[in-house]
Write a structure and sequence with these properties.
Elements: E1 20-23, H1 33-38, E2 42-45, H2 48-66, H3 69-77
Length: about 90
């Protein structure tokens, strides 16, 4: 396991106040789960929190590439409006 970003040191010591570690993302591989379990700290994640935004971003990239958005943006910014039709799907 790679170095945890939530290591055992977080829950060591006499003044332990941590009771729950919640990840708003997918998985909890950055948490030292055995150390949290030994200290009685709950570890949870919320994968549904990022599912839709990630899917939206992926589809946006696919559509932008398929429609040659970057090329059309460059032509428009350069004032070469008439050339943008050269990069549109036909048929």
């Amino acid at each position: 396991m790679a170095a945890a970003r939530v290591p055992a040191a977080v829950v060591s010591g006499a003044g332990l106040r941590v009771r729950l570690i919640a990840r708003h993302g997918v998985g909890f591989d950055a948490v030292d789960v055995p150390a949290m379990t030994a200290a009685g700290v709950l570890v949870t994640n919320t994968p549904d929190a990022v599912r839709r935004p990630v899917a939206t971003a992926a589809l946006t990239y696919v559509l932008a590439l398929a429609q040659k958005l970057l090329i059309k943006d460059q032509l428009t910014r350069a004032g070469r409006w008439h050339e943008r039709t050269d990069h549109m799907g036909m048929g």
